[in-house]
Design brief:
alpha/beta; 295 residues; eight-stranded mixed β-sheet; globular
Length: 295
Amino acid sequence: MAQQFKLPDGRNIDYFLSGAKDGFPLIWIHGTPGAYLPIPSFSAVCEEKGVKVITSSRAGYGGSTRNKGRRIVDAVSDIQALKEHLGIAKCLVGGWSGGGPHALACAARLRGCVAALCVAGGAPYEAEGLDFLAGQGEDNIQEYHAALKGETELQEFCRPQRLDLLKSDAAQVTEAMSSLLPDVDKQTLLGNDEMGQYMVDMFQEGLKTNADGWVDDDMAFIEPWGFDLAEIKVPVFQYQGSEDKMVPYAHGEWLAKHLPQESLRNHLLQGEGHISIFVGRMEGMIDELLAVTKQ
């Protein structure tokens, strides 16, 4: 069950603590759409390795108050306030999917961030030399076309999808997302009961009131992020799979070229999708992050 914290501007944010109670803090940022719920096996790995996991629902999701018009970078001030509330000085940051760009924003702007992990995170919409929609599944293409027409059109797109997700079980979620799932991701979901149920629970929590968080994420993804990648001075670990239809491989290749090279570790992996790339590599990802804290 989430706890709630009142931000300095009066908005509320839902957050949750898991992993090792007295471990090194890791702020984990969910995807789109999403919520504060951590993956149980991920929390278990973190507990075993001495990592405390802090998750929260981004503005507009679940019980977190909407921040209409927010940019990617605006998540940093919310996370900074929560970090201070929890008495955290230094931390690691990680984000998966829609959480990836927000993790990069934290790498650039969050005080006390010592390293960041970006798993299947997209590149900026206006990224030079990148066809943003090329290689994306049909549902994503329709979603971004709606976003490009404005918030009203996007709300109309997301509203019925939200209602379908709220009443779907794991098998139905997999079917609903079929255009976005390569075979390797479908096999991962069908062979991993935890991941399928996690997605059901996350959608039901994040979208329980409305689709505002989802809409605001998409609108933020097609606008300038509000910070420059060159601002990043901490180590970044980037993972991207060649079969990903939610965030295509070209996005990972673009980030690999444009993130500061001094302390960047790329994992551009053949044969992996959006979900499979994370499920089998949780331990290694945590080990990479923890190694930075011991330097």
